[in-house]
Amino acid sequence: MTQASHTVPTVKLLINGEFVESRTSEWRDVVNPATQEVLARVPMATAEELNAAVAAAKRAFESWKKTPIGARARIFLKYQQLIRENMKEVAAILTAEQGKTLPDAEGDVFRGLEVVEHAANIGTLQLGGLANNVASGVDTYTLLQPIGVCAGITPFNFPAMIPLWMFPMAIACGNTFVLKPSEQDPMSTMKLVELAVEAGIPPGVLNVVHGAVDVVNGICDHPDIKAVSFVGSTRVGTHVYNRASLAGKRAQCMMGAKNHVVVLPDAHKEQTLNALAGAGFGAAGQRCMASSVVVFVGESARWLPELVGRARALKVNAGHEPGADLGPVISPSAKARILELIESGVEEGATLELDGRTPDVAGYPRGNFIAPTLFSGVRPGMRIYDEEIFGPVLCTMAVDTLDDAIALINANPNGNGTGVFTQSGAAARKFQEEIDVGQVGINVPIPVPVPLFSFTGSRGSKLGDLGPYGQQVILFYTQTKTVTARWFDDDVVAPVNTTISLK
């Protein structure tokens, strides 16, 4: 932590439509993970600043909830246009502060853009229902009404996509929002926030505070916040879910993972190996949907040397450098943890097929680089299997049958995503029916659904029953009000009093 300096830009708060300088005395550096250059300083917002953001959101809700649904949709039509026009700038900022390659960064922005486009379709999503004549002269219908001030807490690994999972859908539904981006890489998020303000989101409807534990706890505890959405580690997500729920809030928490991909002997070999290398090492393995465990079934285990060859061919470099396949991990402490887990794999008896611990990245001697690393002979009980590594480390295992693979995956506590590579429709159907994981890919290694559907992680990877974006999140960000109305036949012929008093 450092004191604010005039030589390095400071990241602003957004409160009631104004980008303001925090009055905190506590700041953290935003550091380029390839060079250790300090790009900016981000404030740990004070309790008073969080309260001001929530108060602004609460005031704005009174008018925003009455804003016609078409007017809300038009703001997001404008917003998606602005994101498209500024995508390369956002991606460049993201690469500088987070480390991922420019193509990965553009993909990060684009997947968030898809949700913004979905928010612009709110008119067809936020529909209630009607049952006519449920009894004589009685109709029952439902309204999906906004719930109030909502909040989002986002992680470092997708600083564009995940904020865009949250506030566009919440705001499109008629709520107001307080966003807390990751303090490690908030600059690309703030660029997207600036574009949202430019698109016409009114003052107070979207607010941003920065911070760490104190701000997270403040969000969970604040009586005027009605719902909290979180993406991040299992440890923090469990804390957020429990604390927010005890305070009477709705909460959805997408958390850690250990995603397995099963390879059957009849799979298309070249496509499968390419997919495994990309899904295991892309974004330096720093994604909750990374395919971090490959389960070879039967004869497919013979493909291991070729998978190692593909991993070895991937280029490690600073994210903005042409041809880079993966950049650095987010911080020196993250790198140290990953290296410690690799060492534990060696000590616990896994075979280190490819050692990426000491890559030589010319021109970037201080970068947090780890090259693709691959283990075989991994077993449950080893730390590299039991813990989410969140780095470019791929574990491989071998089993005899598809039933063995399904049993192995179902015994793991996490349930974010899984996949199977096969040309057998019967095997694929057996896998999708029997696997106890929320998101399943068939010849797709990272089965994150498009925004028409909802992110549906399960078991230890998710707390809360409604996922982010898609139709499920409409239910999360609205309250269903059921109205039962009866009108008597004689009302039709009774005299009509055209003077209505509101007293």
Automatic annotation (TrEMBL):
Pfam families assigned: Aldedh
Please state the Enzyme Commission number of this protein: 1.2.1.27
Gene that specifies this protein: mmsA
Which keywords, in A-to-Z order, does the entry hold?
Answer: NAD, Oxidoreductase
Q: What enzyme class is recorded for this protein? A: oxidoreductase
Q: Which organism is it from?
A: Azoarcus taiwanensis
The UniProt family comment states:
Belongs to the aldehyde dehydrogenase family.
> This protein is called what?
methylmalonate-semialdehyde dehydrogenase (CoA acylating)
Q: What is the lineage of its organism?
A: Bacteria, Pseudomonadati, Pseudomonadota, Betaproteobacteria, Rhodocyclales
Q: Which PANTHER family match?
A: MALONATE-SEMIALDEHYDE DEHYDROGENASE (PTHR43866), METHYLMALONATE-SEMIALDEHYDE DEHYDROGENASE [ACYLATING], MITOCHONDRIAL (PTHR43866:SF3)
